[in-house]
Design a protein that fits this description.
heterodimer; A: alpha/beta; Transcription Regulator spoIIAA; 4-stranded mixed beta sheet; 13 helices; B: alpha/beta; 4-stranded antiparallel beta sheet; 9 helices; 10 strands; about 35% helix
């Protein structure tokens, strides 16, 4: 028997025996280490549960050649069952280290009420919770807009507290550094617009109206919308991530306790920078879009260069340009607001920063589309 | 513990950031079962040394041996195998904030063992109860206090029953009693698991309470200017800088 055990010394094994009718002896053999395919505690636990005569459990570890957490989890299960059934446990047979660790594990009792209860919430209740949360988020949103507005008032009275060089830095990040991507996207959108238009207009021999299509389309709406979407993904997300990380690192708390309102110090320069830069970027985007249309018109439709430019000039008047730039300004406010709002509302974990960023981009894009619809409708009613 | 077996051997290690040399030509041996303290004033490169030891930053020159194997000369697979024997407690716990405490401890177990979910959950509970956090399995790191976070970080460091535990300033930011309890815990882990422990610290009470070997790094001399058992160093060291450090500046340089 002993020899057979020794041959198998590699794996952890156990043996249950009852020296007297009211005692259970658990003997351990081999190496009891995690991932070593250890015997389950079921057998021992069953024995303790079923044999009601057992009043004492002891252990024997003479042939135990190695152990780690694997043995401890086994023992804890046995000990828990025994404590429940008020069975006496004698741990003297265990290695010193095991005894000490078990003592350590039970040294601090579980704090009452600490354990969280996980309950499956019914579907309707989840909808309810979500609705209530949405309802609660509205006043928060209004409060944020109000605070931002107050910060702007302070700016005009010259009392806003932020660092001028912060503003310049953010202007650089949101303005100049966005030029390459805005160029690329708007040039391509202009090209696409001209292409799609050309296919239809060619059928009537009205190629020259491609200039009108691209001109009005880009300048009045599309230039601003494309810039808005780019800035939502580029800058709005950056604002949310930056402010969110500051929230996680308690940097925003540090500002508050110093008496510096984060609204003025962090949000104001960001909003200001984006509001100033968006109309400019928008103007630039319009130009790029027109250039894209021109390339298709002159290169593919064989229109005369001057002819195309003159047609564009005649159709794109100041009103169209102003409407486009107004779009841009509105989108600037919306993107900055949603980026900063989500950043400031961010929770205190890494995944909360991710959620804040996602939510900032989604909010901005939804706002941009809704705002475009509203402005277009108003323009239609006012006949401009 | 009677016969000293070298566990970590550092040979001619030089640490630098670009051209700026932090410490040069460091030589020391950490024996199996040691509680080895790396001490020194702020900015002398203690944490950088730790990063060199655990494989986060390659030293500018020199070698780190784990047993017989030179860590920085091994291929990536071997390095990974060595690193799995480490448990590291970072200065502020470095728990993954988007996971519960139980999930934090379960992650290394899921990655490196083929235990089933129930067993992993049991082990996570056990590790948490070892550090006195029984019942906090489903809490997120942001919901518990700084001291608890540190202890949870220790529970995670112990998840895979490491052979070597590294502590980066374990008592920083803890109250004296929690700090003392953590010291006891470190001693207990060493006794019962037989792990080798490397501690970066400048908390004197804790250094004297747990350390049985140490080195002192000096920012001026840019190398080790004292080594040995901290208590003996306090009695015997002739170096005025080491004396000033160990007596909290009461014996002036």
């Amino acid at each position: 028997m002993e020899n057979a055990r020794f041959e198998n010394a590699g794996r952890g094994e156990l043996d249950l025996s009852q020296p007297t009718h009211d005692a259970l002896l658990i003997s351990f053999y081999g190496i009891w280490e995690m991932g070593n395919d250890l015997p389950s505690a079921e057998e021992a636990l069953n024995k303790i549960e079923t044999a009601s005569a057992i009043r004492r459990v002891s252990f024997e570890a003479q042939n135990l050649s190695g152990w780690d957490t694997g043995l401890l989890t086994f023992l804890i299960k046995v000990i828990d069952t025994c404590t429940q059934k008020t069975i006496l446990i004698d741990m003297t047979g265990l290695p010193q280290g095991v005894q000490r660790l078990l003592a350590l594990a039970s040294a601090v009792p579980e704090r009452a009420g600490a354990r969280k209860e996980t309950t499956q919430e019914p579907f309707l209740s989840r909808i309810g919770t979500a609705t209530i949360e949405f309802g609660r988020s509205l006043p928060e949103l209004l409060a944020f807009i109000g605070e931002a507005f107050m910060a702007f008032l302070k700016l005009f009275t010259g009392k806003a507290r932020f660092q001028r060089h912060d503003l310049w830095l953010i202007i650089q990040q949101t303005g100049v550094q966005a030029l390459p991507i805005v160029s690329l996207i708007c040039l391509l959108v202009g090209l696409i617009l001209a292409f799609v238009g050309a296919v239809q207009l060619r059928m009537f021999g009205a190629q020259i109206y491609v200039a009108d299509l691209v001109g009005i389309g880009m300048v009045r709406v599309l230039g601003a919308v494309m810039t808005g979407v780019i800035m939502a993904g580029r800058t709005g997300a950056a604002f949310a991530a930056e402010l969110g990380t500051m929230q996680v690192n308690e940097e925003i708390d540090a500002l508050r306790t110093l008496g510096i309102p984060p609204m003025e110090f962090l949000v104001l320069p960001r909003m200001l920078a984006l509001m100033l830069m968006m109309p400019l970027l928008c103007l630039y985007a319009d130009l790029m879009g027109l250039l894209g249309g021109l390339i298709v018109g002159v290169g593919m439709l064989n229109l005369n260069l001057m002819e195309y430019i003159n047609e564009t000039r005649s159709i794109v008047d100041l009103t169209n340009l102003c409407i486009g730039i107004f779009h841009g300004g509105v989108f600037g406010v919306l993107v900055a607001l949603s980026g900063c709002l989500r950043g400031m509302q961010c929770g205190r974990s890494a995944s909360a920063v991710g959620q804040a960023t996602t939510s900032a981009v989604v909010t901005s894009i939804v706002c941009i589309v809704v705002a475009t619809a509203v402005i277009t409708l108003i323009c239609d009613v006012l006949k401009i | 513990m009677n016969c000293l077996v070298p566990h970590i051997t550092v040979k001619d290690l030089t640490m630098a950031y670009g051209d700026f040399v932090l410490q040069r030509d460091m030589n020391f041996v950490v024996n199996r079962g040691d509680i080895f303290i790396i001490m020194g004033g702020s900015g002398c490169g203690k944490t950088t040394l730790l990063r060199n030891l655990v494989g986060l930053k390659e030293p500018a020159r020199g070698q780190v041996f784990y047993g017989e194997v030179s860590f920085w000369e091994s291929d990536q697979e071997e390095q990974g195998r060595i690193m799995r024997q480490f448990g590291i407690l970072y200065q502020s716990g470095a728990l993954w904030t988007s996971m519960t405490l139980s999930e934090n401890i379960a992650l290394p177990l899921r990655e490196y063992t083929d235990l089933n979910e129930a067993a992993i959950r049991e082990i996570a509970s056990l590790k948490l109860s070892l550090v006195g956090l029984k019942g906090f399995e489903d809490f997120y790191p942001s919901e518990i206090s700084g001291g608890m976070r540190k202890r949870a970080g220790l529970a995670r460091a112990m998840a895979l029953d490491p052979e070597i535990l590294f502590f980066d300033e374990p008592s920083a930011g803890l109250d004296p009693i929690s700090s003392r309890l953590l010291d006891d815990l470190i001693l207990e882990i060493r006794e019962s698991l037989g792990a080798t422990i490397v501690v970066v610290s400048h908390e004197l009470p804790s250094i004297f309470a747990i350390g049985n070997n140490s080195i002192y790094l000096d920012a001026e001399a840019k190398t080790i200017i004292g080594s040995g058992n901290p208590k003996k160093m306090l009695e015997e060291s002739q170096n005025p800088i080491v004396r000033a450090f160990l007596t909290r500046g009461e014996q002036k340089v």
